[in-house]
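In response to reviewer comment 3 from the previous cycle, which asked for concrete evidence that the modeling workflow produces usable outputs, we include below a single protein chain processed end to end. The sequence was submitted unchanged, and the resulting structure tokens are shown without manual editing.
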Amino acid sequence: MNPKFLLVTTLALFLSCKKDSNSQSMGKSVVQLLTQQEWILKAVGFDDNRNNILDVQENVITECQKDNSYKFDANGSGKALDNTLSCGSPFNTNFNWVLSGNGTALEIEGVKMNISKLDENDFELVSDIPGLTVNYILQYGH
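The workflow returned the following structure tokens.
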């Protein structure tokens, strides 16, 4: 094999590699990303086809859930708010949260979910519910 070709190919592969910023963005920690501002629920549903993506037909969010917000405070407390579009009786719920798995999982009031995405604008939780063959996915944004 031509050594110049091998060098060019290796260099091209090296330069095309990109670091995955799935759990951190611009050097911010998981806690900083989680607590910097409120998160709004954007989509929720079961991953029926098991492709690890919440497809349009799997999204079962209701209109009244689309403005629900979740505020995580750095001290491990938080607040869920129903906001303007109420689904019946409005809720304003305080909760406690903790990170586990070296920042790859979030536990809220004893319910553990895996953080599959967390950056400046997007936050996704995947809950592997015992007894079910599909994952439950929650997607948030700002």
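The longest helix spans residues 3-16. We consider this sufficient to address the reviewer's concern, and the full set will be provided in the supplementary archive.
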